[in-house]
Amino acid sequence: MSHINESEAEAAVKLSNLDLNLLVSLDVLLEERSVTRAAARLGLSQPALSGALARLRRHFDDPLLVRSGNTSELSPLAQALRLRTAHALKEVERVFASEAVFDPATSTRTFTLHASDYAMAVLGPRVAQVLEDRAPGVMLRFENHPNTVTDSPTDWLRGMDGMIVPRGYVFDLPSSDLFTDEWVCVVDQDNDAVGAALTMTDVAELPWVLTHHGPTRFLSAVRQLEQLGIEPRVQAVVESFLALPFYIVGTRRLGLIQRHLADMLAARHRLRVLACPWDVVPVVQALWWHPLQTREPGHAWLRSVLTETSRHLDRRT
What we know:
Blueprint: H1 2-16, H2 21-32, H3 35-42, H4 46-60, E1 65-68, E2 71-74, H5 76-97, E3 110-115, H6 117-134, E4 139-144, H7 153-157, E5 162-166, E6 175-181, E7 183-188, H8 200-205, E8 207-211, H9 220-227, E9 233-238, H10 244-248, E10 254-258, H11 259-266, E11 271-275, E12 283-288, H12 297-310
Parallel strand pairs: 3-4, 3-5, 8-9, 8-10
Antiparallel strand pairs: 1-2, 5-12, 6-12, 7-10, 7-11
Helix pairs in contact: 2-3, 2-4, 2-5, 3-4, 6-12
């Protein structure tokens, strides 16, 4: 037991010798890769931030930023530190934002969620309206989820308040269903290669533009099509559902998208929305969060808001 206490005491002494402001400086320096830009962003003088960088270099015994021509690149250690630093800052923010009772009317807390641009478009505006009405000081930051988010979701969730990801890609973490949507196909309004209804021949022969195409992406409908022996003839792959119309209008291409977003886009672009000619399993959008957040009052309030605002989107109701 004494050995454990000595270790804890040693760690406490080391931590007490650190300046947590260096963590903020490190995070911005790694993101900006420039002392000048980082200093401007932090409201510090360049000499002050250069001094902070020097201290960080001594601490890590590493250059962190390496000159390459007129720019700076991250050292291998700095690349490894970038995600850890962002997560560590988020944890520090959570510690100081913790409240025994969460009052949305007076809180100035910032919540961060990872989501696709689809979820941001169909759900985000209603959530923002609730915040304006009930929690004017609260900010919700939506960030695009990276391609690797489902590889190590627990690690990602340490640095944010949750992620909106369809069922079937994340497991063994607290979650709550938000809404169910259906997959539909979209084509140009004047695409005369497609009749009143889409056929399996159309699906097999016409070119496609897909989103997030790959073994770990979220297009379960494409996998179901491949299981029927049809490999879509993909001409373009984009990392954004909102970009689809720009690859479809004026072409013969097919696109695959969720019904709610398809209806929104068809009202603004020359698109025709068609039912998929194969049986497609609906997509269930769910909110996932770190277990440590389950009983936190502010997080519980956020979950209730997301559940409430997504109710109108659920095609099961």
